[in-house]
Design goal:
- The protein is mainly alpha-helical.
- The chain has 2 domains: 180 residues, no CATH class; 361 residues, no CATH class.
- It contains 29 helices and 2 strands.
- The protein has a two-stranded antiparallel ribbon with strand order 1-2.
């Protein structure tokens, strides 16, 4: 009983702390805007504080996500296996996760000790104390992976990952010892050399094991970080590079916008905003042929744009929108569920979508230009799915909703505050009044005010609980970005993009042939990897290739995002297919059949967007 009580206490502490950090992350930039506009000055140290709050929410979120077993992972392979095979694979995956998260923890501790001046502070705290959340976070995740196994033999096997993790982190351990012990015996130099020599021998088998384990349920962040870790060890590089690159990524200028927009989207999804928007678009579009289908597509795009996670839209609104479509008459359950599954991802290409922001950061291009470039392609995809709804409505003689001016006015008045949100974001950011990070903060504060004060959908005392629901997704994404940056750095440092560019230059002479191969490669990537991991790992590889053929950077970004959107719907392991199967309570095979017509339509639209660059670049200077 004592253990259980302590577990609850720890659970409540990390939950409350994560909620507090996420809210501070939004309110500090918001207050910065107010102080700057009113007093013509700023808040001292606010920028550094915000950057390091992102670091904290990443690792607190990673801890909570580990405990709840909600890390992004591919689980299709393990779900197809019977017992006891599936159990043993889960144990093996836990062993892998424990081993590498412990190794990450040790290398992060070495990075904290070696990489920072103890006299430097963030606010009133020493920077080393602030960054200590990295090794602490990885260590707790390692323990939670062990605790996730049933007690007894299975948990013991998972725990064996700790000693294996010690072996994986011998070099960082020796670096820590050198920091505090000036005259280490030469024996430790020998151990260090043996470690790197052994890593060179076993690196390829370990990478293969990580790839296989990723396909059967090992968290994506473990697989990507582990591959980077092993490849650095193979090349005799300091293993502190992994946490160093993760720290650099998480404390970059634009990244704080990601958790803020995600939080704003979650606040919307936890309120009755979906019901109000359904009523609004039903009132204004229901009288058109296929108006209800158009409404469903637009509402899905709206929500996905802000959450940055198409799966959240399916889970939060899928049942409501499916019911509305079916009850309107003429739309079958199969059609409705297929349309909603396909619509769940198209909002990722509209501003202020999180993948657009991240792509711009990694590709080192203007966020504003990427926002502008995504508008028309997004509209094209919305129109394409809407047209299908119209055709089915005409064929099945779906009953229209007569236009009622009074109902339209009431619906507009009811939803006016949600409708103003994207307008406020676009005006504030494109008008140059605030930065993208401050725009995200304004979005959070505005959404909180309208949902807590104006609509009262969320009670004030429930704000921490609602905020906490967003933490696993936000933390899960940020942890992936942190460790994947190391792998991305290795690929660039090993000159993989240059070698790939040289090969393409020698063997591919047509821009259109290159674009075909690019589409195929990105579809497979989107099927097997979440969009955030793909941006980190793949974008540095394709940018030099696109330069060979004179492809506009924004057009390349739109091609990338459009293909990755479609990858969520690509069988057999597109993420949204599993979420839709769960939400609509249908077998996975039936979900495949439901989505296939919409997948083909969106595939055609992706090809149009790929081969007609004007759609992406028309409004650029």
């Amino acid at each position: 009983m004592a253990n259980d009580a302590s577990g609850v206490k720890v659970r409540s502490i990390d939950a409350v702390l994560a909620s507090l950090v996420l809210l501070l992350l939004a309110f500090i930039p918001f207050l910065e805007v107010l102080v700057r506009k009113i007093f013509r000055t700023g808040i001292p140290g606010s920028t550094e504080s915000v950057f390091h709050l992102v670091l904290w929410i990443a690792f607190l979120g990673g801890i909570i996500t580990s405990r709840e077993k909600r890390h992004l992972a591919l689980t299709a392979g393990i779900d197809l296996l019977k017992e006891p095979y599936s159990t043993w694979i889960r144990v093996f995956n836990a062993f892998i996760s424990v081993s590498f998260t412990f190794a990450f923890a040790v290398s992060a501790l070495s990075f904290v000790i070696i990489g920072f001046d103890p006299t430097v502070k963030v606010g009133f705290l020493p920077i080393q104390a602030v960054v200590l959340i990295m090794p602490v976070g990885f260590s707790v995740m390692s323990i939670l992976f062990i605790r996730g196994m049933p007690k007894g033999k299975l948990r013991f096997i998972a725990a064996l990952g700790i000693p294996f993790g010690v072996l994986l982190s011998l070099s960082p351990i020796i670096n820590i010892l050198y920091t505090y012990i000036f005259n280490l015996p030469p024996f430790f130099d020998t151990v260090n050399d043996v470690f790197y020599q052994t890593a060179g021998v076993i690196s390829i088998p370990l990478v293969i094991i990580l790839i296989v384990s990723a396909l059967t349920g090992t968290p994506i962040f473990v697989a990507l970080g582990g591959i980077g870790y092993i490849l650095f060890a193979r090349s005799w590089a300091p293993l502190e590079i992994i946490p160093n690159e993760g720290y650099t990524m998480l404390t970059s200028n634009t990244l704080p916008a990601l958790p803020m927009f995600a939080l704003a989207g979650f606040l919307l999804s936890e309120s009755k905003a979906g019901e109000r928007l359904v009523r609004l678009f039903r009132a204004f579009l229901g009288w058109l042929p296929g108006g209800m289908a158009v409404m469903a597509v637009v509402v899905c795009a709206f929500f996905t744009t802000f959450t940055g996670a198409s799966g959240v839209t399916i889970l939060a609104l899928g049942a409501l929108l499916s019911l509305v479509l079916i009850q309107s008459g003429g739309y079958t359950k199969s059609f409705s569920n297929g349309l909603l599954t396909a619509s769940g991802s198209i909002g990722l290409i509209f501003p202020p979508s999180l993948p657009i922001i991240l792509y711009a950061v990694i590709a080192q291009i203007s966020v504003k230009e990427m926002f502008i470039g995504g508008i028309m392609p997004g509209v094209v995809m919305v129109i394409a799915l809407s047209v299908v709804g119209v055709i089915v409505a005409l064929r099945n003689k779906v009953q229209r909703v007569p236009f009622d001016l009074k109902e339209a006015v009431l619906a507009f008045r009811e939803a006016i505050w949600e409708i103003l949100l994207p307008l406020i974001i676009l005006v504030m950011y494109f008008g140059g009044f605030v930065t993208i990070v401050e725009t995200g903060a304004i979005a959070v504060v505005y959404t909180l005010i309208i949902q807590v004060v104006v609509y009262r959908d969320i009670k004030f005392k429930h704000i921490p609980r609602v905020v906490l629901k967003s933490v696993p997704i936000i933390g899960g994404i940020l942890i992936i970005l942190a460790v994947a940056k190391g792998l991305s750095y290795f690929l660039v440092d090993a000159e993989i993009p240059m070698r790939l560019t040289a090969w393409v230059e020698a063997n591919v002479h047509s821009k259109y042939v290159f674009l075909i191969f690019l589409n195929l490669a990105l579809l497979v990537t989107g099927c097997l990897m979440d969009i955030f991991s793909a941006i980190m790992v793949v974008v540095p590889l394709i940018i030099p290739l696109s330069n060979l053929f004179g492809i506009h950077p924004v057009h390349l970004g739109v091609i990338f995002l459009a293909n990755l959107e479609l990858g969520y719907l690509t069988p057999p392991v597109g993420l949204n297919l599993f979420l839709a199967s769960y939400r609509f309570e249908e077998p996975l095979g039936k979900t495949y059949r439901n989505v296939l017509p919409f997948f083909l339509i969106l595939l055609v639209m992706v090809l149009v967007i790929t081969y007609v660059p004007f759609i992406s670049t028309a409004f650029l200077k």
